[in-house]
Amino acid sequence: MQRIGIIGGGIRGSMYAHSLRGFPGADVRAVCDLAEPVARKVADDFGLSAYTDHRRMLAEQELDAVIVATPDFAHRQAAVDAASAGCHLLVEKPLATTREDADAIAAAVRAAGVQCMVGFENRWNPAIRQLRERSAAGALGRVLTQNILLSNTYFVPTTMIGWAAKSSPAWFLMSHTVDAAAWVSGRTVTAVDARGSRGVLAARSVDTWDVVHALLTFDDATTANLTSTWVLPDSMPSVVDFQYQVIGEGSAMYVDLQDQSVRQAGPEGFRWPGLLGGEIDGRLQGPPTWMVQDFVSRLERGEPVGPGLDEGAAVTDVVVAIHESLESGNTVPVGAGTRG
Questions:
Q1: Which of 13, 84, 153, 293 could pair with 232 in a Cys bridge, judged by C-beta atoms 3.0 to 4.6 Å apart?
Q2: Distance from C-alpha of 205 to C-alpha of 336, rounded to nearest angstrom
Q3: How far is C-alpha 277 from the geometric centre of its chain's CA atoms?
């Protein structure tokens, strides 16, 4: 039985607690959040101990694993302290938002001899997994290019998360698609060209990028085109727009994760409720739930967990390069010699 603590009691932390309630091999014991009412609510909902200091939680609870579900920029200290306490880690994507933070987490994990999974949940998305499996089996031939659109409505940066000004569409969304593009193609990103615009969200008191476009070049000279925005109208039927195209030498595949064949019209307007989430018989379903359950199951069986540190650090490197390219307007290399 894996004794688990959760650091970060917001949307994701609560979801992880729900996902593991009653799951074989999981004993979620405690939750920590800097906001005491947030920690208390999750603790009350799921029968956990509540903390506002993760160090105290680590000292008082005998934990085997910790889930780090803090905001994008706040993973380092929680992950380093948990690893140093001998806990395996599941760290939300991105692993970190600086190369220095990614290196510090990796050093702590390796020094402690624990495992670390990075939460690239689309590896458990059935549609994206289908792309990966077809590509790995050679059914597409050599992957020549990918076009991936992953965007949110204004609701996400202005209402859903209170720390959007410390993040960006690239960190919040492209960390997903950078990982997916590399995973599906089986290639390594070597260079980035990025362009974008800002000002609209800043006028709404969220000073970050509105739109980001990134052209990734891989080590075999193939490419992927990524677009993410945080300025879709709130009248959209879903807060998420996700489209994925893979073109190979032999065939192409197209994924539309929009309405997912479920549409609803009613007094509140037209909506796409979606299929990759929600409950069945009181149990949460969907990629993030399947991901955290896989994490626990693999720990229980003594198996390696992943995607791990290497994949997490690679995505951090690429998204750092995307921001550097946004600021400079130049092509930015990624890989050997770029870490500092």
A1: 153
A2: 38
A3: 16
Residue 30, beta-bridge partner list: 5, 49
Alpha-carbon span 116 to 90, nearest angstrom: 6
For 90-112, how does the pLDDT look when each residue is reduced to its tens digit (9 = 90+)? 999 999 999 999 999 999 999 99
Cis omega (within 30 of 0) for bond into 233: no
Other Cβ atoms less than 10 A from the Cβ of 243: the count is 15
Half-sphere exposure of 281 (CA within 13 A, CB side): 1
In this predicted model, what pLDDT tens digit does every residue of 284-325 receive, in sequence order? 899 999 999 999 999 999 999 999 999 999 999 999 999 999
Between CA 141 and CA 68 the distance in angstroms is: 38
- Find, among 166, 158, 73, 64, the residue nearest to 114 by Cα: 64
DSSP class of residue 74? G
Say how far apart CA 195 and CA 197 lie, in whole Å. Answer: 7
Mapped onto helix, strand or coil, the DSSP state of residue 21 is coil
Helices 126-136 and 175-185 sit at what angle, rounded to 10 degrees? 30
Q: Specify whether the CB–CB gap between 61 and 6 falls below 8 A.
A: no
Phi, psi of 274 (to 5 degrees): 80, 160
- Start-to-end CA span in the chain (Å): 39
For residue 340, pLDDT beyond 50: no
SS3 label, residue 282: coil
Distance CA 230, CA 244 (A): 18
Q: Are 85 and 63 in contact (CB under 8 A)?
A: yes
Q: How far is CA 43 from CA 8, 66, 133, 165, in A?
A: 12, 15, 39, 28
Residues 276, 280, 284, 289: is their CA dihedral positive or negative? negative
What distance in Å separates the CA atoms of residue 286 and residue 276, rounded to the nearest whole number? 5
Q: Are strands 269-271 and 223-229 parallel, antiparallel or unpaired?
A: unpaired
Distances (CA, A) of 295 to 79, 92, 116, 148: 16, 12, 9, 27
Residue appearing with tokens 């739109």:
211
